[in-house]
Structure prediction request, 489 residues.
Amino acid sequence: MDAEPNRYAMFQHGTRKGCPMTPANTDAPLQVGQSEACGPVAFADPRLQSLVLTHGSPPMQSDGNPVELALYTPHPFALQEQQAEALCYEAVHASFAYHLQHNAFYRRYAEAAGVCAEDLRGPQDLVKIPLIPVHVFKGCPGPHEFLPWLTSLSATDIAWPTAAIATDSYQEQIALLYRDCGIQVESIEGDNGAMLFLPFDRVSQRRNVHANILTFFAMYPEFRNLAELTSVTLWPPTFRWPSWIVPQERVRSLLDRPLDLAMLAELSAPQKPRRFVHRFFGRRQARQGIALLAGILARLKEVAATGMPGVLWIPSSLLGVLSHFALEQDGGLRLGSAWRVIQSGGWQPNLEQPLSAAELRMLAAQGLGILPEQVYDLYSPIGSLGPCALSCEAGYLHIPPPLVHPMVVSEAMEPLDEGMWGRFAFLSPLPQAFPGFIVTEDRARLWRRCPSCDRLGPVLDPAISLMHDGEDRSCGNIVRQIIAERLTT
Prediction:
């Protein structure tokens, strides 16, 4: 690091005009269109700097890229609305222009919608950006078409293999793409079995991982001072959050066998531990099922007994099951005040008697021996490498304002007013391999400010659920036509 002092100049404190470098300067105005390359992040904490640099070096300070400036702006939840809005607009505008130039699929899509970069003159025009339905990324015809299908959605300057990959396995192709090309493909299997695939080149990987690390510690600054923090996970290795907030050697997995989506759905349905063990494993294997959960609890007790602070990462559908089991077996654990639980992945659709977010937090508090305020939620609409929202103590999901422009839209794809329920959509400037302008299948409502805490920026209501209507819309038909044309040319 000493050999490249200029590269890390952005990590030093500074207060250039218009650049919110410290909390005391968060009221300074930031003009739309400002392009001064100021050092955007202040890493006073060497541990935080080390975590970030593990996942790639930021660009040179002189780069001046609006996306990078927004990404490394410190104190995102302390920015005044005008500052955050200006940073986000510049970043999204730059990303939109990039994809119009480098992504043939999105250029055709925007042309069909009649929108060009010159139509964006200020933050109020961001609603004009054409949104891609998330199911477009679930449209791979099959393993044989995997590579050309991914290529058809991606930027033209991504270094894809020139020859087809000779394997029928998605996972083998994904592994080869990462090994040979440095392209990381996020794959998520939905409840209906459809696979969602999102490609991330090295720039996209670095941006998104850095964004998630910085967002986490900005949201929960108390973790920055915990040198012995342990990250404990009940997720498969593909869920990378546990190793982003601590060094890899401080990550502990509590699973002695993988849990896939089918298992989680089955485990979360019944209400009594014995019933769900018998239902999932069958009567002959019920003992192994009980042993699995008992082993998880035993290992969690072992880690907690060290007295070190910890974060438990757990699928939401498993949190209630584990809490029920702990209460029945031992009267509950006693993790204590040094622990936090971060759940994610959705859980209401899998329960016979759905709990509210507050009820699930209370159940987890009783079963694991913590306060309800120590149970947080992570919402990531397109997987762990995409944009995220983290909940505050009251459960509202905070979106990092410089990095994501959130929207709730109607069935006609029109933006809805604050507090109205609709389909969640977002504009993220971070992905370079694909356009981060996506409308999801999630039902949500948005608030400009948190009703509970003093963090600034937009929040989502905790009660996010899946939209009932999964039918294609006109924009989806346009997308299919464009992809079909590209695959046949």
User: Anything to note?
Assistant: Residues 280 and 333 are 24 Å apart (CA to CA). The first helix runs from residue 46 to 53.
